[in-house]
Amino acid sequence: MSFPQTKVLEDRGAALLLAIGLLALFAMMGTAYVTYMGLEAERAREDGRSTAARHYAQAGFHAAVGELAAELDATGSLGAAGSFVFEFPVYEGGPGEAFQASETVRARVSVDYADEMSRVNLNAAPPVILESLLGVDTESAEAIAAALPPEGGPRWLASVDDLAVRGLLAPGDLPQRDVTVYSAADQAPDGVLMNVNTVSRRGLEAAFNLTPEEASAVEDGRPYESVEQLEEALGRSLSETPAADIADRLVFESRLARLTCVAVVEELRAGGEWHARRTRRIETVAWFPPDAPAEPVILYWRESGPVDSSDSA
Question: Among 138, 158, 229, 285, which residue carries the largest CB count within 10 Å?
Answer without folding.
Answer: 285
